[in-house]
Design a protein that fits this description.
The chain is of the alpha+beta class. It contains 19 helices and 21 strands. The strands form seven sheets. The chain has a six-stranded mixed beta sheet. Helix 3 packs antiparallel against helix 19 and helix 16 packs across helix 17. The longest helix has about 30 residues.
Length: about 700
């Protein structure tokens, strides 16, 4: 996937980081070029488009590879997003650190200035924050959802960017499966289209049949854009106009008064927020959006009136993957969807549409299961177990005992968090008992809350007080019974009144793409989750990175102009040698750090396929960077470009009218943490390499041994 010459006389760890990062550069941006990972042993292939799946498929045996994997896993386990940005910046800043070493910059200066530069950027981009307030005020509280109501969506197997035509269509219109278009109409009536970063504005052509839009829809679209007034935080590094007054609010946002064009930015619409955070994957984000709506409706019904503020609980959202079905079967619905063996079809038909009783097991439901903390000796048997009272095996006796308990308490459904004995499953089906294993712990808790069941560890603990009531079982109504999923299984829906569960059923005719679809869904879900949790987002579309690039360029120019006295103020109580070194090398380090942002933006634009080469994309960035510098305030330049529908910068480019242009948003904390993790890893490898490359040994390597190849 990548091959690079490794010079053993230089910092090998930094070179390895750059090589690993090169393998994932196609994952950056809304248009991802997927990769096929082929298993050499089983000859199976998986389609991936994320960093975590890429690194899991590589043999990272080196120390640097292990550090890289741990860094990416830490980001993914915490935020479930930002790993593609993390990997790319690791590579870009590794090259920047190498360039600094090549120019003779001391390692201590590289570490100090890079950290200070990133901290300064992190403070500067706070001016691009947009508050997210009252996001659920636009949801119709009068609407209720039936238990089996679902929301379907059309998936395009490989692309995340729709075509250039945006068609406004009603929600009940049939979606043309053959077109595989991702242009979808949200429940509010607004069209959803993928944000194209830095793409020149394209004129949208609409069909004559769809050109006439009702005045009600127009008014709705105009109303939803009323939240697009901006709030600015003016940087201390920029010159302020005397006529402008900046007032800082208690929530940390800053409002501008007295300017010619005041900006009051906020987002208070769920549709706008979801579209802005979709980053080109509207199909997955639409499922997430409707999952949030279902969860909100469930809370509203449970509480009667939403006196308590609603909080999106992502732990009560689940996925069920069914490869082999068309993308049009993908949907979300209230309740719990799971896959069971097709042999249970007759049993489900008999039990559906009637309340059944349920028992919940918090561990395995097997003969030899012991809860945590109890270690049973494998080579010791009790007297009762050793005596063969009848020809049946001990497992047969145990299964019969379990079945008798289920019959005694009239239990027709058993859910277990762990594994289930196959012998028990085969015995229960003819007796009209369905046993399901490997159930998520949050699902178990939700059924316990809604049905009144109490989770138990052993079958001997089952009593009348532990049994839940009022669970309904039915086939997932959109699942054709003559079509089965993988392993000859079918999808069923389990629900009960008041249960706080929403399941997203993901389908694809391509089995190799199933993992990618699930990863994309969870990435969108966690983007929306953190946006609602933090109640703030960044203006996206590359605006944050562009501001960092402009800010570092200003700092570089200031360092060159102000000289030794100004630069020595960065570090207090330093020696004259360190102060002079900082003054000498700071512009160089800041420039190399800024080059990492420049590479990031250039690759981001090039991956959108709007430019024939990265050189052309880089020239486009440089053009706008020069315009921002000439304007005197890069922040004001960014905001002004956001207000221009035909500027080709920072907007999605899906409509020829400003009212129809959805903004692009980024989540705040995961993005900044990805930057910090990337730089921390680069500096760790840099300092570790410097400790290894010591003495005269590295200068005595033979010329024929000085170079090698690192292949991924």
């Amino acid at each position: 996937m990548a091959c690079r010459v490794i010079n053993k006389r230089r910092h090998e760890g930094l070179q390895q980081l750059s090589s690993f990062a090169e393998a994932g550069r196609t994952f950056l941006g809304p248009v991802k070029s997927s990769k096929f990972i082929i298993d050499e042993e089983y000859h199976e292939s998986v389609l991936i488009s994320s960093t975590i799946r890429l690194l899991e498929s590589l043999d990272l045996t080196s120390t640097v590879g292990q550090l890289l994997m741990e860094t990416v896993q830490a980001q993914n386990n915490t935020y479930r997003t930002g790993t593609n940005t993390l990997l790319f910046l690791i590579g870009a800043w590794s090259s920047a650190a190498e360039e600094c070493l090549h120019l003779g910059v001391p390692i201590s200066i590289i570490v100090s200035v890079m950290l200070e530069g990133l901290n300064s950027c992190s403070e500067e981009v706070l001016s691009l924050q947009v508050p997210v307030h009252n996001i659920f005020d636009h949801i119709d509280n009068a609407k209720t959802f039936s238990a089996c109501e679902i929301f379907s969506v059309s998936f395009c197997p490989f692309l995340q960017i729709p075509s250039d035509k945006g068609l406004l269509q009603k929600e009940h219109d049939l979606i043309d499966v053959a077109s595989q278009s991702l242009t979808i109409c949200n429940f509010s009536g607004r069209p959803v289209k993928s944000p194209k970063l830095f793409k020149p504005q394209a004129q949208v052509e609409t069909d004559k049949n769809t050109s006439q839009i009702s005045q009600t829809l127009k008014n709705s679209l105009l109303t939803t854009t009323s939240c697009r007034n901006s709030i600015l935080i003016h940087s201390r590094h920029f010159d302020r106009t005397d006529n402008d007054q900046w007032i800082r609010k208690p929530d940390g946002f800053v409002e501008q008064h007295g300017a010619a064009t005041s900006i009051n930015d906020k987002c208070n619409d769920l549709v706008e927020l979801a579209v802005g955070l979709s980053h080109g994957d509207q199909s997955s984000m639409k499922l997430v959006e409707e999952a949030v709506r279902l969860q909100y409706q469930n809370v509203y019904i449970r509480q009667g009136n939403c006196t308590m503020p609603f909080s999106f609980d992502i732990s009560r959202i689940f996925t069920c993957c069914v490869p082999g079905l068309p993308e049009t079967f993908s949907c979300v619905c209230p309740g719990y969807i799971t896959l069971v063996s097709k042999s249970s079809t007759t049993l489900i038909k008999e039990l559906q549409n009637q309340p059944i009783r349920v028992v919940l097991f918090e561990g395995d439901l097997t003969e030899n299961y012991c809860h945590l903390g109890f270690n049973r000796s494998t080579n010791i048997k009790t007297v009762l177990e050793s005596i063969k009272i009848q020809e049946d095996s001990s497992e047969e006796m145990w299964a019969n005992h379990v079945l008798q308990v289920l019959i005694q308490f009239n239990v027709n459904l058993v859910l277990a968090q762990g594994n289930i004995s196959e012998h028990l499953i085969e015995k229960c089906i003819p007796n009209k008992r369905l046993v399901i294993g490997s159930v998520n712990g949050n699902v178990m808790q939700a059924f316990a809350e809604a049905s009144g069941a109490v989770q138990v560890a052993y079958i001997t603990q089952v009593s009348e007080d532990c049994v839940g009531n009022g669970v309904y079982m039915t086939f997932w109504r959109s699942f054709p019974l003559n079509v089965v999923g993988r392993d000859n299984r079918i999808a069923i829906l389990l629900e009960t009144e008041g249960i706080n569960l929403v399941t997203a059923l993901l389908t694809s005719p391509i089995s190799a793409q199933m993992q990618t679809k699930e990863d994309r869904f969870w990435t969108c879900a966690y983007r929306l989750y953190y946006a609602l949790k933090e109640q703030k987002v960044f203006l996206g579309g590359g605006a944050v990175e562009f501001l960092c690039l402009s800010h570092l360029q200003i700092l570089e120019e200031q360092s060159l102009k102000k000289g030794k006295q100004t630069c020595s103020g960065w570090l207090h109580n330093t020696s004259s040698w360190l102060a002079s070194s900082l003054a000498l090398y700071r512009p160089t380090v800041l420039k190399c750090l800024a080059n990492g942002w420049h590479k990031y933006l250039s690759t981001l634009i090039y991956n959108t396929t709007n430019y024939s080469s990265e050189f052309e994309a880089s020239a486009f960035i440089q053009h706008h960077l020069q315009n921002a510098t000439d304007s005197g305030s890069p922040l004001s330049y960014i905001m002004s470009e956001y207000r221009k529908p035909n500027s080709g910068v920072f907007n999605s480019g899906i409509s020829n009218t400003p009212e129809h242009i959805p903004r692009v948003y980024d989540i705040v904390t995961p993005k900044i943490e990805a930057w910090r993790r990337a730089l921390d890893l680069v500096l760790l490898v840099l300092q570790t390499d410097s400790e290894i490359i010591t003495g005269l040994g590295h200068t005595q390597i033979k010329s024929q041994e000085s170079e090698g190849f690192l292949s991924l």
